[in-house]
Design brief:
Rossmann fold, four-stranded antiparallel sheet, seven-stranded mixed sheet, single chain, 15 strands
Length: 1045
């Protein structure tokens, strides 16, 4: 496939543009758009970007949030004053392809990519990113490549450079998700091993701890739990009484729980008493402040009384001065009315003279306006007749279209009924299958019901038996423990050589008495072992019966679980059948499937006939719409002209009538111009005398007002002094109330006074001493409860073992320990397999480091070299250039920009500093490098058939780029590389210079000049073409004519 070129651009109601169209030579060349800032140069490039990609990158942060549109296109793309969503852009290319985008026409990214991309390129997932990297240079700072985040730069670069597929494969092999999955698997298996090892360690610790506790209990002694509880409750009552706390009212507490709670209760009481002592200590200052504020809060304060008297005196003096000012102002007002009356009389006489002069002129103008109105009325009637004829044709076509829409709605409903009929057949079959499955489950449950009831009954009897045996075992253990303890106590007093029994005083040979005592201590364990065996046998039988019940239970429960599905299937089929019957308006005897097919066939046939009628009437309707539009426009224009003529005629007639009425209303009998002149001279003399008298009265009023001002200022000062005095008294009252409230908050009665405070401090210090004594008593009681704590600790250990290993683990701890140890080895084997798999992938991805170097060498290095070449060609002071580097990691790519200096010595000294170019280069240098990056990427990564650069005023804010060098580079791109350039400029002289350079090189150049904004869109001069551009357009027109011939 050959390269393609843009041949025309049409913009409709897009931002500042109304109707804009320009044809281009479909060949290498330049389109140069010129206009001052604000006319729409950037909007022109936005239109092309929107037509190609469906969005505008510079607006994306403002019109969308997290991928969701928050501002619709019509609010910022549709031209102000145009119909909503009327904006559209059409791009025509050299091979006849066109791209049109509007609110209703939205070409897919795949269609646009298929037109622009070279064959064999593969799928382009983000066309906008490709174009932004190699085609578009925006004017905004955020549109520059150097101003983007590093992740966005990498995303923009990897697509046009052709490494996006390699990046995708690398990410999937060693991406973050794969690594996390392996790590999670290894962590889970390690956690499983750690859990098993912890369970083993905990179990062994519980065994050792339980043995130590039992040994300690057998050797100890102390108070009973009842004694401890009794003493603790006495202490609790005293703590509650002294500290003023509420009784807890807790029942069923053990001795240790009660002692622990009392310790916390004692801490709370001690803390509250200490806080009260501290608060009372600070109350002395409160008493002093109260005594001070109480004196200031009195109503008969001397300051307050003096301020009130001074205010009364100031008010009286001010009232007298205001009366004098009022009298003076009244005299001035009366004289002003005399002056106004004289002026009004003069105005009346002058207006009468003017009306007499203008009556003759109005008569001629009224006749001319009537003739113009008659001509407009005749033309308007003719256009209305033409409009009525066109409306009749359009109405007929609209009726046919409405009938088509009605039949289309009916056809859609019949097609939906047909689909519903198919779903109904599927639902009926599904309901039959569920009912058959339910029947089988009911039969199976009935067969095993007897066995289930027998097993449940046997388990109940075995549970009763094992409960009785366990009670007997507990009694046997208690009895054996008592005998063993008694015999052990006696045996501890018998030595190896004793011959007399200390209990019965019988005599035995030396050594035999000791042997008999030890044998008696062991004799109680035989009965315990026998009962323990019976309990274990019953437990085994219960486990077997329970297992049998668990095996039968799913069969019994299956009908219950299947019944809802079967019921829902039947109900769904019934509901769908009722809905279809209601939609078809059929009764129970009709065949719904046949009826749906027949109605759908009839509806589709009627719809096809209606569509044929609409198509047949379409040409006539389109012509009528054209005539109607023309007639409507003429009617509007003629109506406006007639309205203007009518308005002008009415205005002239009204002016004549008003003039005559004004002359008659002034009461001047048969006036003439000379008589009115004499009256004007007399009235003007009277006016001058009135003005002189008014000046004298105004002087008197000004003097009275000047005397009033100081008195008003004195009154304001006296009012302020009284307000301050009253405010101070109110503040003192509020302060005494607040200090009294704080006093009551401390738990003290009345108003702040020293005697009440000293009594409260004495009571608080006594309470602190009593609580300290109760704390000592509580510590002494706690030291005598060690045996009770050991018993509770043994119960806690047994509960932990029961929770971890169940009854079997508590009854046989060693067997449960072996069970835990047997689970450890399989878990270690599973961990080994996971780690081996992860190591294999890690070894495979080691080669990615070599691929990173290869990418820098084969992809980035040519781009970096091309950037240096463009900078050297265009920049007036190259200095430093931006270079790219991609650092590959096993799970990501870190993309960064670096600086390379032209001076080799400077480059060697500064290259070691890791400083981003954004903090070294100026905005102008960054903009220049951004332009060089665009040119380098466009020429290095030739992914597109459309070799083009779209440059929005590239030299506006940049004095780094040499203009002549810039134009030479652009000419070389057009002439040598076959580029189509689309560029804008705000400077008319700059545009002339660029156009002359292209003319001199014999390269095509098309110029468009934007002149001024307007309500219907920006105004522009028609496109102008140089010789080369005109020749290319003529050749294309001739080829098109030959093809059509």
């Amino acid at each position: 496939m050959n390269d393609v070129y843009l041949s025309s651009i049409n913009i409709e109601d897009f931002r500042t543009f109304g109707e804009f169209s320009v044809e281009l030579p479909a060949a290498p060349g330049l389109l140069l758009l010129t206009g001052t800032n604000g006319l729409g140069k950037s909007s022109f490039f936005d239109a092309i970007e929107w037509a190609l990609t469906g969005n505008i990158r510079r607006f994306t942060p403002y019109v969308s949030r997290q991928g969701n549109t928050v501002i619709p296109d019509r609010d910022y793309l549709t031209r102000n004053g145009a119909d909503p969503d009327s904006h559209a852009v059409t791009l025509q290319f050299s091979e006849g392809e066109s791209i049109r985008r509007s609110a209703s026409q939205k070409p897919s990214a795949a269609e646009v990519a298929a037109l622009l991309a070279r064959p064999g390129r593969g799928q382009i997932t983000d066309l906008g990113t490709h174009l932004a990297m190699t085609h578009f240079l925006g004017q905004a700072e955020r549109q520059r490549f150097t101003s983007r985040e590093s992740d966005d730069q990498w995303a923009a670069l990897k697509g046009p450079s052709g490494v996006d597929r390699l990046e995708l494969i690398r990410t999937r092999l060693r991406g973050r998700s794969t690594t996390i999955a392996f790590n999670n698997r290894v962590k889970a298996e390690q956690a499983r091993i750690a859990d098993i090892e912890k369970e083993i360690a905990d179990w062994q610790g519980w065994q050792a701890r339980l043995e130590r506790l039992r040994t300690a209990v057998r050797a100890g002694g102390g108070l009973s739990e009842g004694d401890v509880l009794s003493g603790a409750r006495v202490i609790e009552a005293e703590i509650v009484s002294i500290a003023g706390l509420k009784p807890a009212g807790i029942s069923g507490e053990t001795a240790s729980q009660l002692l622990a709670r009392l310790a916390g209760l004692l801490d709370t009481g001690t803390k509250q008493v200490s806080e009260r002592v501290a608060r009372l200590t600070g109350a002395s200052a409160l008493i002093e402040r109260y005594q001070l504020q109480a004196g200031l809060a009195r109503e008969d304060s001397p300051n307050l009384l003096g301020a009130r008297q001074q205010l009364d005196d100031a008010r009286k003096a001010t009232a007298d001065a205001q009366a004098r000012v009022t009298n003076s102002n009244g005299a001035v007002t009366a004289q002003s009315e005399v002056l106004t009356s004289a002026g009004a009389e003069i105005g009346r006489l002058e207006a009468a003279r003017a009306d007499l002069v203008g009556q003759d002129e109005l008569t001629t103008m009224i006749e001319a306006a009537r003739a113009e109105l008659n001509a407009h009325t005749t033309a308007l009637d003719e256009q209305r007749r033409l409009l009525s004829e066109a409306d009749g044709i359009i109405s007929a076509h609209a009726a046919a279209a409405a009938e088509e829409a009605r039949l289309q709605s009916i056809a859609a409903q019949t097609r939906a009924d047909l689909d519903m009929s198919s779903r109904l057949a599927e639902l009926i079959a599904y309901a039959r299958d569920r009912q058959a499955e339910l029947s089988e489950a009911v039969s199976a449950a009935a067969e095993v019901k007897g066995n289930y009831d027998a097993a449940v009954d046997r388990r109940q009897r075995l549970s009763v038996s094992i409960g009785e045996q366990r009670a007997e075992l507990a009694e046997a253990e208690r009895h054996a423990s008592a005998i063993t303890a008694a015999v052990a106590a006696i045996a501890s007093h018998i030595h190896e050589d004793d011959e007399t029994c200390p209990v019965c005083q019988a005599n035995y040979p030396a050594g035999e008495l000791k042997l008999l005592a030890n044998e008696a201590a062991r004799s109680g364990n035989a009965r315990v072992a026998e009962i323990t065996g019976r309990v274990e046998d019953l437990a085994v039988q219960i486990a077997v019966v329970t297992q049998r019940i668990d095996e039968i239970s799913p069969t019994l429960a299956r009908p219950t679980s299947l019944e809802p599905d079967a019921s829902r299937a039947r109900q769904a089929a019934s509901d769908l059948a009722a809905a279809l019957r209601q939609s078809l308006k059929a009764d129970d005897r009709d065949d719904l499937a046949s009826l749906a097919v027949s109605r759908d066939t009839a509806a589709q046939s009627q719809l096809a006939d209606a569509r044929g009628r609409v198509v047949a009437q379409l040409p006539t309707a389109l012509a009528a719409e054209q005539r109607r539009a023309t007639a409507t426009t003429e009617i509007v224009q003629l109506t406006n002209r007639a309205t203007a003529a009518t308005t002008r005629l009415n205005r002239l007639v009204a002016e004549g009538r008003d003039g005559r009425e004004r002359i008659a209303a002034r009461g001047i009998p048969t006036p003439t111009v000379d008589e009115i002149g004499k009256l004007l001279a007399t009235r003007r003399g009277e006016l001058e005398a009135a003005r002189k008298r008014l000046g004298e009265l105004e002087g008197d009023a000004a003097a009275a007002l000047a005397a009033l001002k100081p008195l008003e200022l004195q009154l304001v000062a006296r009012e302020t002094e009284l307000a301050n005095a009253e405010s101070a008294q109110n503040n003192a009252v509020q302060a005494t109330q607040e200090l009294t409230r704080q006093w009551i908050t401390l738990g003290l009665a009345g108003t702040p006074n020293r005697a009440t405070l000293e009594a409260a401090q004495s009571a608080a210090e006594k309470a602190a001493t009593d609580l300290a004594l109760l704390g000592n008593a509580l510590k002494g009681l706690s030291s005598l409860t060690q045996d009770l704590l050991l018993e509770e600790e043994m119960a806690t250990v047994l509960a932990q073992m029961l929770a971890a290993g169940g009854d079997d683990g508590v009854n046989d701890p060693d067997a449960y320990l072996k069970t835990l140890q047997s689970r450890l080895q399989p878990a270690r084997v599973a961990l080994k397999l996971s780690q081996d798999a992860q190591d294999a992938i890690n070894k495979y991805t080691v080669t990615l480091g070599e691929r990173a170097e290869e990418y820098n060498r084969e992809v980035l290095q040519p781009l970096n070299e091309r950037i240096l070449e463009f900078n050297a060609a265009m920049l007036s002071t190259p200095g430093a250039s931006v270079q790219f580097k991609a650092n590959k990691r096993v799970d990501r790519t870190d993309f960064e920009m670096q600086l390379e200096y032209d001076d080799q010595i400077e480059n060697s000294l500064l290259s070691g500093r890791k400083v981003p170019p954004q903090v070294v280069l100026s905005e102008g240098q960054l903009a220049a490098n951004g332009f060089s990056i665009l040119c380098a990427a466009s020429t290095a990564y030739r992914w597109s058939r459309w070799r083009a650069l779209l440059l929005d005023d590239p030299l506006q804010h940049n004095d780094i780029i040499h203009t002549a060098a810039f134009v030479d580079v652009m000419r070389n791109l057009v002439e040598l590389e076959g580029y189509q350039l689309i560029m804008s400029s705000h400077d008319r002289a700059e545009s002339d210079f660029i156009a002359r350079k292209f003319d001199a090189a014999g390269l095509a150049c098309t110029r468009v000049l934007l002149t001024a904004p307007a309500e219907t869109g920006v105004v522009y001069d028609p496109p102008s073409f140089n010789v080369a551009a005109g020749r290319a357009l003529s050749a294309r027109t001739g080829a098109a004519s030959a093809t059509s011939a």
